[in-house]
Design brief:
Blueprint lengths: L1 E2 L5 E2 L7 H16 L18 E3 L9 H17 L5 E3 L6
Parallel strand pairs: 3-4
Antiparallel strand pairs: 1-2
Length: 94
């Protein structure tokens, strides 16, 4: 995992299909949503949610920049659909 912008992170899952990548993303999203985050003892715990976008490499892509663009579009789909969810570049069944 690497930081990829202000509040964006990138996780690469080698040899993983889109269905499994979406499953991993959903497990991360759910675990974060159901956790309490403490800043200090004087404040109540904070709740954090995640919006995630998933995509998979395929031979039709022109390169890594296109893959990143597709993934970023999926992320913004998750945000525009109400946040705190996982969206993929194509339905996970494919």
């Amino acid at each position: 995992m690497v930081r990829f912008g202000g509040e964006e992170f990138l996780i690469i899952l080698p040899d993983t299909d889109l269905r499994y990548a979406v499953d991993v993303a959903e497990r991360i999203r759910s675990r974060v949503e159901n956790s309490d985050f403490y800043y200090n003892n004087e404040q109540p715990p904070a709740k954090i949610t995640l919006s995630l976008g998933c995509a998979c490499w395929n031979q039709d892509l022109s390169g890594i920049d296109e893959l990143l663009t597709i993934t970023d579009n999926a992320l913004y789909d998750a945000k525009s659909r109400g946040r705190n969810q996982v969206c993929s570049s194509v339905p996970a069944e494919q």
